[in-house]
Amino acid sequence: MKRVVLILIALMLVFSLAPSAIGSSEAQDGVEITFVHIFGDENDIRNEIVRDIVADFTAETGIQVNIQTTIADYDEVLDRTILDAEQGDAAHVVQLDETANRFAVDSGQFVNISSIATEEQLASLDDILPPVREVFTVDGDMWSLPWNTSNAVMYYNRDMFVEAGLDPDDPPQTFDEILEACEVIMASDLELAGCMNWPLTAWFVESWMANQGALVVNNQNGHDGRATEALFLSDEMKLIFNWWKEMADRGYYVYTGKTVDYNGEAGAFITQRFAMHLNSTAGLTNFQYYAELLNWDLGVTNFPLPNAEATNGVISGGASLWITEGHSEEELEAAREFVFYMTSAENIAQWHKASGYFPNRQESIDMLEAEGFWEENPAFRIALDQMLQTTPTPATGGVILGPYPQVREILETAVQSVIDQGESVDDALAAAKQLADREIEDYNLFYLD
Amino acid sequence: MDYLKRLFNVLRDDRTLQNTFLILAGLFLLWFVVAEWDGLIDFAMFLVDAGQSTPGFAEGVVDYFDDVASERLRSSLLVGGIFGAAISAVFLSWNRGWLYLPPITTDALLTGLLVGVLAYYTDPQVLTVLLGAGMTLILAAYFYQELDGFVVLGRALRGVNAPRNSLQWLSLIPRAVWIGLGAAFVLAMVPAGFWNALGAVVGFTLFTALIYEPAMRAFFTPGTLRKLANQRALITLAIGAGVGLVGGAIGGQILMYPLQHCTYDSEVSQVQYRMGLALTAFSTLILLIPAWTLLSRQRRSSDGDTIGYFRNRVLPYFLLLPSLIFLLVFLYYPAIQIMTQSTRLIRRNSDRQIDYCLQHYVDLSESVSYQRSFSTTIWTTAAIVAITMILALLIAILASQRVRGANVYRTLLIWPYAISPLVIGAIFLNMFRQGGSGIINWALDGLFGIQPAWLTDPNLAPWVIVSAAVWNALGFNVLFYIAGLQNIPKDLLEAAAIDGANLVQRFFRVTLPLLSPFTFFLLIANVTYSFYGIYPVVDVLTEGGPPLGPAGIEGGATNVLIYDAYRGAFDASARVGEASARAVILFILVAAITLLQFRYVERRVTYGG
Fold this sequence. Notes:
The structure holds two protein chains of two kinds. In chain A, α2 runs antiparallel to α16 (345-355). Helix content of chain A is 52%, strand content 12%. Chain A has two domains: 28-150 and 316-388, D-Maltodextrin-Binding Protein, domain 2 (3-Layer(aba) Sandwich), CATH 3.40.190.10; 152-315 and 401-447, 3-Layer(aba) Sandwich (D-Maltodextrin-Binding Protein, domain 2). Chain A has helices at residues 2-26, 45-61, 74-87, 101-107, 113-116, 119-124, 130-135, 158-164, 175-187, 202-211, 218-221, 235-249, 262-270, 284-293, 329-342, 345-355, 362-371, 373-376, 381-388, 404-419, 425-447, and strands at residues 32-37, 64-69, 93-97, 110-111, 137-138, 141-142, 145-150, 152-157, 196-197, 276-280, 298-301, 317-324. Residues 17-28 of chain A have low confidence and may be disordered. In chain A, the strands form three sheets. In chain A, strands 1, 2, 3, 4, 7 and 12 form a six-stranded mixed β-sheet that branches. In chain A, strands 9-10-8-11 form a four-stranded mixed β-sheet. By secondary structure, chain B is an all-alpha fold. Chain B contains 26 helices and two strands. Chain B has a two-stranded antiparallel ribbon. In chain B, β1 (344-346) and β2 form a beta hairpin. Residues 138-158, 161-172, 213-218 and 298-303 of chain B have low confidence and may be disordered. At the A-B interface, α3, α4, α13, α20 and α21 of A face loops of B.
C-alpha cells in the first residue's frame, strides 16, 4: 500500500513538471515575449479582454506572448521587475503606474520607447490626449505608452438620495455641498456606517490639488527639472486636510482602518453601508454589475471639487506599458510592436468599453462617438469629459518624482494621524513635509548624476 | 563610645556592606576610564612618542606607526591590546580559581530588568527621592539592628537569616533599594535615554549578582588574598597579559579591518567612537577565546572514555564538509555581506556607495521611531509567547481527553498552523476591518452597539496583531503539547493520586515538570516566530500603523522591528545599508535572548532519565 502511494506521488510530481517542459519546447519557432499585468483575478473581466487582444496580436504577427498575471499592486510589480532585471530575466513588457515614471527612468532598467519607435509609431503618439501625454512624459520623452488611464469619479446610491429627500439628479459637486448633503443623509432613517467613504489614498489629494491648480512638489511638480522640495504647507493642501478632518470628525467619512483599501471600501459601498463613494473610473463596470445584482440604483457623477472655482481639471492616473532592458534585438522589436498594438486606437476603444478606463487617444474617442456607445452608456462618458475639460498645466500633469510611492505613503500617514489620532492639520503637514523632503534629498543624492 | 565601637564592628564584619563599597569604587573606576578614555589614549600616545628618540628597533616601529595613514590602525591596535591583556588576565585568574566571578542568577537578571524599566520610564527627580528614601531606610535598618533594635526586622531587611515563617517578604526591601540605587547611579552618570536604560539592565544585573552572591564573601578572606599574591599566580597573570596583549591587538583587527578602523578617526562622534571600542573588544574575543581554551586545556586522560571520538583526526572534518559548504554559501557569506553593507550608504539600483562607518547604528539608536519599534517588539513578543503557550496547553489538555472524535478535533486544531501568515493576515483583516465592512464590528454593533477602532486605535491595533499571531502559532504548540501529554507515564500520575495529590497538585507537580522539555523548545520556537514571523501579518493588517505623532514622525504602534527592517529592504529603491543595520541589530537581539533562554530556562528543564 505504501509503495502504491509513493508511486502515485512520484507520478504526480512528474506530471506537474511536464507542462512547463512542453511549453518551452513549443516556442522554438518565432519570437516569444513575456507581458506582466495586474488584473490577475480570474473573475476580473479585464483579465479576459487582455487575453483576447493578445490572442489577436499573436494571430496577426506570429509573435508568441506569455501573459503573466498577478494580483499584486503596481509597486510590487516594479520591485519584482527590478529584481528580475538584476538577475537578467525581467519580463519584456510590464505594466507600471504613473508613480513609477521617474524611478523607472533613473533605474536604468527600462528602454526609452520613443527612442526605438519607428517614424510612423512616433507620429501616432501625437494622437494621445495632451494632459495624459504630460503625465507620462519624463525628461521630454514618452518612455512608456499610457494604456489603462483613469481618473477618479464619485459614485452614489440614488435610492438613498431619494429616501433622504435629496435630488438624485443633482448630486453634490463641491466639498461644501457634500457636507450639506451628508447632514441631510445622516439625519435620515437610513442605516449607514457613515455618509461617504473612499480609499485613503494620496492620489485623491493630488487630484484635489490639481483641481485648484496647486503643485505638490516644486520645480513645476518635477516637470521643470528635478523636484527638491515638497509643497505641503500651501493653503490648498490645508483646505483639503481640513475638509477631510471635518468629514471624519462629524462621522460622515469612515474608512476600513487600512490605507489604500480599494476593495474594502468598495465592498462597504456596494453593500449599502454608505451613500456616496469615491473611486477610479476603472471600477465602473464592476460597480454597475454589483449594483444590479444587489438591486439598487447606481449614480455616477464628477469627482467633487474643493470649491466652485477649482475647475483646473483632474490628473490622469492609471498605468502605462514599459519595455525592459537586456533583450535581443528581435525580442525588443517584438516588444515594441506589442506595446503599440496594445495601445492602438481600436484596442484602447475596446478596452474602454470593457473596463471604464477612459480612451486616451483622440481617434478612439471619434470611433466610440461614431458608434454611439456613450448615448447608451452615459456613465462611461464622465471620466472622459473630466479629462477633456482639463487644462494641461504642470498641476494637472501629475507629479514627476523619484521617491513618489514613499511620499504618497507619508501623505497617507499624515491624513491618518489627523483623522484618527487627532493631530492638528498644521503639525501633520509640517511633519509630513519634513519627512518627504528628507526622502527627496536622499533620493537625489543617490540617483542624480 | 560604645556605639562607635559597635559601628566599627559592623563595618568590619558585614561583608555585604564592604562588597557594596568595593563595587561602587570599581564602577567609579570603570566610569572614569570610559569618560576619560581620550585622555588615557593621549597619555599612551605620549609614551609612544617618547620612544621616538631611541634609535634602532624602536625607531623602526615608531616610524611605522608614525605614518599618518595608519593613525587609526595605531589606535585600534592599542585599544585591542590593552583590552586583550586585561581580559585575559582576568579570565586566567578566574580559570585558576583565584578570582571569583558570581553566576548571574535569575534574581539578579530580574532586578536588572526592573532597573532598566525604571530608568526608562521614571523621571530623574522621582528617582532621586526614591534613592534618598531607600538609603535612609537601609541605614536605619543597620543601626536599628546593631544598636539593640528590633533584631528580626533588621535581619529581614538585609535579607539574611530571616525566620522562614515570618517577615520573609521584608527581604524584598533591600532588593528594592538596590533597584533605586542602580537607577540613580545610571541617571547620575549618564544622560537619561533608551540605550542608557538598556545599559543599566546589563550593568545592574551584574551589580546585583555580585551583591547577592553569598560566595562573594569567600573572595575577601585572607586565604584567598594570600593565594592571589603567590608567585605562580603572578607568573600566570603575566603570561595571560602578554598573550592577551598580542592576541587582543591582532584579534581587534578582525572586525575593525573591514571597517578601515573608521571609528578611530578623529572626526567621528563620541557615540560612534564608543561603539567602535565595544566592537574592538568583541573582536578581540574572537581570537582570545580559542587562545584561552588552549592555555587552560586539561589533558584528556588516556584511559578515558573513547566512545564518540574519531580516531582519525581528518575524517570528522571531511564528513562535516558538505554541510559546512552549504552554511558558508547560504548563511555565513550573506551574513558577513550584510554586516559590511550596514557600514555603507547603499540604495538599490544606484551605483553610488558612501562609507558610513557605524553611523547607521548611531542614527537608529537615536531615532525615536526605532526605539518605539524596539519596545513594541519586546512587549508584543512577550504577549504572543505567553498567551500562545498557556492557551495551547489548555487546549492540548482538553484535546487529550477521551471523547468521541478526538482525532478530528486535534486535526482541526492544528490547521491554523498550516495556513501562511499572509493568509492569516487577510482573514483577520476581513474580521477586524472598520467602516462597515468588518465582521467583528458588524456583530458587536448588532449585539452591543459598539464599534471599536481595531486598526486605527494605537492601543488596540497591537492586540489585533498579537491575536493573529497567536492563532497562527497555536496549532504548532498544541501539536507538541498533545505529544508531550501522551508521553507522560500514567503510573506516575497514579502514584501521585494514591499519595493523595488532587487534580491541581498532580498537574503542577507531575504533569508540568514532565512537559518542561516541550515547553522549553516551544519557548524558543515561539520567541523566534514572534521576532521574525509576524511580518506578513503586520503588512496585511496595519502596515506598521496607526501612526504615532504628526504624520507618524514618532513611528507606528505596530511597527515591530522585523516589519521595520523588511519595509525598507526590498523596494526597488531600497536603502540597503540601513536595512542591513536593522537586520544586524535584530540578529544580535534574538541571539542574545536565545542564549539567555538556554542559560536560565534550560536549567529548570528535566529530560527525565
